[in-house]
Amino acid sequence: MEDASPRVLLYILRRDVRLADNPIFHAASTNFKTNTFTKPVHASDTHIRNHISVPDQDIPSFTHLLPVYILPSNQVEVSGFLSDSTTESPYPKAQSRVAGFWRTGHHRAQFMAEGAWDLKEKLQNLGCGSDLQIRVGKIGEVVENILQWYTDEKNAGRSTVDVAAIWMTADEGSEEKEDEADVQRISSEREVAFKAWADEKYYIDNRDLPLHDIADLPNVYTTYRKSLEPLRSRPRPSIPAPTQLPPSPPEIPPQNHPFEIPTSREGLIKALLQPLEDDPKHGLQHPPQWPPETKSSHPFPGGEAAAHERLRYLISDGAMSTYKTTRNGMVGVDYSTKLSGFLAQGHITARQIHWSMMDFEEGRGPGEKIADYGKGENDGTAGVRLELLWRDYMHLCARKFGNRMFHLDGIQDPSKRTSSDVEPETHHEQRPSRKRWKRVHQSGGLGDTPERTREVFGRFRSGRTGIGLIDAANREVFLTGYTSNRARQNVASFLSNSSHLGIDWRVGAEWYEYLLIDYDMASNWGNWQYVAGVGNDPRQGRVFNPVKQALDYDPQGEYIKTWVPELRQLPLTKSVAMKKQEVDEQKLMGLYQAWRLGDWDKDRLGLRGVEWVEWPLVKIQFSVSRGRGRGGSEGRGRGRAWRGRSRGNDRGKKRLELEKQMENVQIADGENGG
Ligand SMILES: Cc1cc2nc3c(=O)[nH]c(=O)nc-3n(C[C@H](O)[C@H](O)[C@H](O)COP(=O)(O)OP(=O)(O)OC[C@H]3O[C@@H](n4cnc5c(N)ncnc54)[C@H](O)[C@@H]3O)c2cc1C
């Protein structure tokens, strides 16, 4: 006679919070006894894969599915979930290693909660008894508690449930790998089958890469990209969303003491945000304030539904097709896709984005009114694919270099490099000596003091350095959790480069980890390293001149005025003839660095005596002249020539020809540093 006891498949979710294109949900659906799998739901129906080959021995016999989304206590502060406010959390605070910031801030915490709740509702709406459980704690401990609870209940005669297997999706970070190893060990100790599934949220499936060993990954993105072109033919088909799943088990283990899981989306958000409210100012004397009439560039809630809504909009409104010309923008919602947060949490996959673009390119699905509809790959969709490959590349770099990503010198240890690490055409065989940074807890040996470095870093975080572009970007990211790639590059360069602040780049990366809605371990730490010049790329970092960059990418001062409202009333044009206005170069330079404003403007704007105006952290000498070529050189966006030829760049070019006189960068210090 068949054993009638419920057999549970336990699915531990981390950054795979979606129903569609999720191999685990798909396998649970198709291998469940009453398999009634029917129709997929998303636009890429034509490119779906209904059968994924999983060896039979990997599929346990199960009758119920228990999906559990765990908020890991080392990355997300969980003390807001304590059932009794007088109890202490058993876990150390989820704070960063170097600067001690919370590791997950408001913006991402809320986005994650929204994503989890969206999936919970999706599962419930399948109407087959499925649901998502949310738990907090150390992942291994949560799993152990679940297994122990079922054992105890069975021993006490209150339940007949057995856990048949544990499945989870592998992830790249070292902490994630440790959690996976813990779960595997616990499974093995308790003789429960375990399977770590490949993470399928990337553009090119790892199993299709032309790499025998991760050590073979080229250290230069361009080399990697060229080895994979044409990119459009690379992604695997996506997997449809199941319409039916095994039900949740009859008994479900509760959240372990001393925590309690709220029963509403709002309650979940509140519990996540509560510990962060203790110090809403982050120890900053002047935390950024929301500027009047300013809208976020990232107004999207988290979740699979919102991700697909955004994707559909990008395609049907044409923003995907114009991406190449708008991607260097900084103001508004549609200059770039804003899909990064969804990708980071696994609310959507890169190949789903690819297949939706493919539908458009081949004249299927939404977007009929757009000129490029049905005309194959266009500059915009090709540009998005290139970016998605950057994301893949960062994640592969994380695999190749592992924990070295977090070290001050990154992976730039000459003794560990081989000649094949060097990009042949750039002839950078000679590695420069190690870089040094000003440190926040001890002197970096550069005549700096940690007190002064902390003070400067505080002004940087507050958006009060005196450099318009940097201040706008830092205020924006603080208030919204998002800022453009262009802004991020400038900010990272400004913090870490010795000709500007020269501060330990890791505290910048930690600050971003805290703030970013789209924080992704590999993309964040990889990009910071890349700009700081400690990454695998042979060039020694990207030195961006934020004044020249503002002129190229914010030629009308729109971005700076959006986030630094103190400068909004500064007129940037002057009359040169009847009805003829011309850019007032002097004023524009004053917008980019307010110390350059004349006394009359300072008085009029109420900026006289204001610290970031009168005592900027850095003064960049930069002048404008007519009819002369641009001088100097600087980091170009990740070496992609076309990125530099932005819309803003062309406009700026028409109006102004600049001569860069950058040699004279002064780091304001001591008495005039404020
Ligand atoms: C210092 C610094 C820190 C960063 N931290 C993160 C991070 O934590 N998480 C993150 O997703 N991106 C990070 N980026 C990369 C990039 O800035 C963001 O991915 C991008 O701005 C997100 O906006 P979007 O979705 O509109 O991007 P789009 O321009 O629309 O690009 C499409 C997608 O491509 C991917 N992508 C684009 N550029 C990069 C890149 N340089 N590296 C990796 N992936 C890329 C993203 O997934 C993005 O959603 C960082 C960049 C810098 C310079």
Which terms summarize this structure?
binds flavin-adenine dinucleotide, 674 residues, single chain, two-stranded antiparallel ribbon, disordered C terminus, alpha/beta, Rossmann fold, five-stranded parallel sheet
Describe this structure in words.
With 674 residues, this protein is of the alpha/beta class. The protein has a domain at 7-200 and 239-278: Rossmann fold (3-Layer(aba) Sandwich), CATH 3.40.50.620. It has helices at 23-30, 106-125, 139-155, 174-189, 221-226, 265-273, 304-316, 323-326, 340-345, 350-361, 379-401, 450-462, 468-480, 485-496, 505-515, 521-532, 546-553, 558-563, 585-592, 599-605, 611-614, 641-644, 647-655; strands at residues 7-13, 64-72, 133-137, 162-169, 193-197, 573-577, 580-583, 618-620, 623-624, 658-659, 665-667. Strand 4, helix 4 (174-189) and strand 5 form a beta-alpha-beta unit. Helix 3 (139-155) runs parallel beside helix 4 (174-189), helix 11 (379-401) crosses helix 16 and helix 15 (505-515) runs antiparallel to helix 16 (521-532). The longest helix is centred in the middle third of the chain and has 23 residues, at 379-401. The protein starts with 6 loop residues before the first strand and ends in a 7-residue tail after the last strand. The model is unreliable at 34-46, 411-433 and 627-674 (pLDDT under 50). Flavin-adenine dinucleotide binds at residues 327, 336-340, 343-344, 384, 387-388, 390-391, 394, 484-485, 488-489, 492, 512, 516, 518-520, 523-524, 527-528, 531. Residues 237-253 have a biased composition (Pro residues). The record marks 437, 505, 528 as: Electron transfer via tryptophanyl radical. It comes from Karstenula rhodostoma CBS 690.94.
